Amino acid sequence: MRKFQAGLLAVVFLLTSILLGGCKQNSSDINESSTQRPKDELLLAIGSEPEGGFDPINGWGRYGSPLFQSTLLKRDQNMDIVMDLAKAYEVSEDSLSWTVIIREDVKFSDGSNLTSDDVVFTYDTLLNSASSIDMTFMESVEKIDDYTIKFNLKTPRSTFISNLVATGIVPKNLYSGEYYQNPIGSGPFILKQWDKGQQIIVESNPLYYGQKPQFNKITFLFLEEDAAFAAAKAGQIDMTSIPPSYASQKIEGMKIVEVDSVDNRGIMFPVVKSNEVDSDSSPVGNDVTADKAIREALNIAVDRQEIVDGVLEGYGTAAHSICEGLPWWNEETVIEDGNIDMAKKVLADSGWIDLDSDGYLEKDSVKAEFNLVYPSGDQLRQSLAMVVSDMVKPIGIKINIEAKTWDEIEGVLHKDAILMGWGSHDPLEMYNVYSSNMKGIEWYNPGYYENKKVDEYMDKALQAKTEEEANEYWKKAQWDGETGLSGKGDVPWVWLVNRSHIYLMKDNLDIGSPQIQPHGHGWPLTSNIEQWKWID
Amino acid sequence: MNNNSVLTFIIKKVIRFTSLLFALCALSFVLISNSPIDPVKAYIGADMMNVGPEQRAKIEQYWGLDKPAHEQFLSWASAVARGDLGDSKIYRRPVIEIISERFAASLLLMGTAWTISGILGFILGIVSAVKKGSWIDKVIKWYCFVLASTPTFWLGLLLLIVFVVWLGILPIGLAVPAGVLKTDVTLADKLMHFILPALTLSILGVANMAMHTRTKLIEVLNSDYVLFAKARGESDWEIVKNHGIRNIALPAITLQFAYFGELFGGSILAEKIFSYPGLGSAITEAGLRADVPLLLGIVLFSAIFVFSGNLIADILYKVVDPRMRGISAS
């Protein structure tokens, strides 16, 4: 028996010593790396790994900086269009062709010149690829001379500019099946190493033509949320994105930076009555939400700031539109909300009365009651649904909240109110969500909203030759003083909040003034990566 | 064992194996194609808004989704028969490449955990049985019960907090140090990154083995022949050595090799927590986003893996136990 105890002790001792021995050696390693990491290096855990690699043809770099490639145009921190690879661009009289002239001094990181051949090749490949980038509206792209390219569109489309902003140019002669892991381009960085499933290490591109980044080496770690937060706590990384629930925990040496976004959440309503539209798939229409008074009252009754404070812990802004803060946003869409009396009046004026005194209103034997569906597992949307249903109880509207998976939601998409979210840097999104041409197509305009005037404005916006002109029409589509797609007009959606993106970073790291962030954390933050620096 | 019986054994196993693989793949395929997940939508993800019906049709055609399900399966199966597992939809490169890349990392992790938990569990089980009722037995039992009901991811997070955040002595996740070029990565670095995931998996595997070994050994120790051995004056150690280990070896082997399957599941979770680039993250992605070729590839691969575990156990029986050899020869 004694032998057993001795054996057990030996095993325990062995294990402990292995562990401790290893640890000791490593603790010095880590301390070295965190204190002695050179000033021009950065360690981040902000984005998730793009599975398709770093090939713009497969969708890499649509938001934020493509890092390894550069784009024809860019949006600056105010979301205004500025030149990048392009020197100038021009839209034809019929708005169908776009001519772009590019710089002549640009080299790929292997030293070869970037010419119009590469641009034509990039867009041609995109056009023919079955990837997540939809270029089907483009007819063709042709080379005029070495530095001039002409894009021909099938229909006028001012939002084509978003494609010029989002698409990184790949080198024709170096593009192959391996490009996704060997992305040679003309961007500010070179991909030095990619440990798949773990990290990428990038280094500054000495041949880059634009403003050089302050950091020579940046490592992007692909960590789970919990692991990334633990890494920040342990002082092993310089920056990570965190959910609002983590923001209350103080970490020494790190600060919380809140970046505004159009990452919005709102309620989509079916605006037609049931049986009004024939559909062979899922049922369309809802008799309660089809009444504008219901939607309008709801829009006025919810207290957005209270939602921001309560649900988002203050990390967000009130949303009144699909594109709050973007250049094509109409500021007049902001309304005074949290006004219960006003909401009650709207309902009463339209004939909604509590006939059976159960606390909820009725009109022509229809009860003011509808389902509000949110995707199961999404805590934020669940909280939003609950808060909204509480907020409208006093005005006599009953909301039944239900959780469903996205695939189940597809079955009730056209008949129930859904808590959804959008938020893109492309105004085309507004067209897709509100145009009558998009009724019931994919996830576009699921509520079957239609307003001739709005359609007209949006068509004009698409046909516009400059972004300024287009923006005027996008604004009018939201609210022109009489009608519009916003909460002031037909209220097909009730927008609730824009959730800010929260980043935890070292106290002395300065990320300049980033763009207003789109739906989705991480990579978009890199759009101004050349401004990032240490402050002393 | 004569040659004839070996041949029958092999033929039987091969038939069983191929039919198993086929059934497994067919079943998985039916399950995925009937799952409510729309693969195109899952692929497009956040970009959903900017993909119209025309582009969607293009993607479906590219993936062969426009064909009926049985045709899709047959074309996949015939490609597999030729040794081509197809291309992953989400990673957009050959499945075999992804699996081989990731399996190497997983294998090392699972191998280590398997060995450590097996040996440690066996030893703890024996100690606990011999010392039945003593404090040492109670401690081991308590430890095993707690572990048996601990989910992998929870233990992983706990270890993460203790060793990385509080003690700060181990690196966070990954298989290599952050921001260090391949040429500068040392074996010691890799080892440090290996400790936490391997530890998580090893600790969890111990419980099963220890508790089964304990029960079996107690049974043996209560038998008449052990009583007789005691009467002959054999010491505890001699009894365990001469009568115990021989009798508990077989169930232990069964258990240890059957554990292959469970290990696979556990490693998926452990890899996810520690961002360890094994098969785990690939299979989760493939499942959640209905990447049929990748998922079927991994299913195929894990089936082979688990099957070989059981096969090795079968062969070992015959090696370890002379009685089994007798049976198969007759």
Describe this structure in words.
- The complex is a heterodimer of chains A (536) and B (330).
- Chain A has 536 residues and is α+β, with helices and mostly antiparallel strands.
- In chain A, 27% of the residues lie in helices and 21% in strands.
- Chain A has 12 helices and 23 strands.
- Chain A has helices at residues 2-36, 116-128, 160-166, 225-233, 292-301, 304-311, 340-349, 379-392, 406-412, 428-434, 452-463, 467-478, and strands spanning 41-45, 73-75, 81-83, 86-91, 97-102, 138-145, 148-153, 189-195, 199-204, 217-221, 239-242, 254-259, 264-268, 316-318, 362-363, 366-367, 369-375, 398-404, 417-420, 493-499, 501-506, 509-510, 533-534.
- In chain A, a hairpin with a 5-residue loop joins β4 and β5 (97-102).
- The model of chain A is unreliable at 13-35 (pLDDT under 50).
- Chain B is mainly α.
- Chain B is 78% helix and 0% strand.
- In chain B, α5 (95-130) runs antiparallel to α6, α7 (152-166) packs across α10 (236-273) and α10 (236-273) runs antiparallel to α12 (292-320).
- The longest helix of chain B has 38 residues, at 236-273.
- The termini of chain B are close together.
- At the A-B interface, α1, β8, β10, α4 and α9 of A face α2, α3, α5, α7 and α8 of B.
Summarize the structure.
The complex is a heterodimer of chains A (536) and B (330). Chain A is α+β, with helices and mostly antiparallel strands and 536 residues long. Chain A has helices spanning 2-36, 116-128, 160-166, 225-233, 292-301, 304-311, 340-349, 379-392, 406-412, 428-434, 452-463, 467-478; strands spanning 41-45, 73-75, 81-83, 86-91, 97-102, 138-145, 148-153, 189-195, 199-204, 217-221, 239-242, 254-259, 264-268, 316-318, 362-363, 366-367, 369-375, 398-404, 417-420, 493-499, 501-506, 509-510, 533-534.
What layout of secondary structure does this protein have?
The complex is a heterodimer of chains A (536) and B (330).
Chain A: H1 2-36, E1 41-45, E2 73-75, E3 81-83, E4 86-91, E5 97-102, H2 116-128, E6 138-145, E7 148-153, H3 160-166, E8 189-195, E9 199-204, E10 217-221, H4 225-233, E11 239-242, E12 254-259, E13 264-268, H5 292-301, H6 304-311, E14 316-318, H7 340-349, E15 362-363, E16 366-367, E17 369-375, H8 379-392, E18 398-404, H9 406-412, E19 417-420, H10 428-434, H11 452-463, H12 467-478, E20 493-499, E21 501-506, E22 509-510, E23 533-534
Chain B: H1 3-34, H2 39-44, H3 53-63, H4 69-81, H5 95-130, H6 135-148, H7 152-166, H8 187-221, H9 224-232, H10 236-273, H11 279-288, H12 292-320, H13 322-329
Helix pairs in contact in B: 1-12, 5-6, 5-8, 5-10, 5-12, 6-8, 7-8, 7-10, 8-10, 10-11, 10-12, 11-12, 12-13
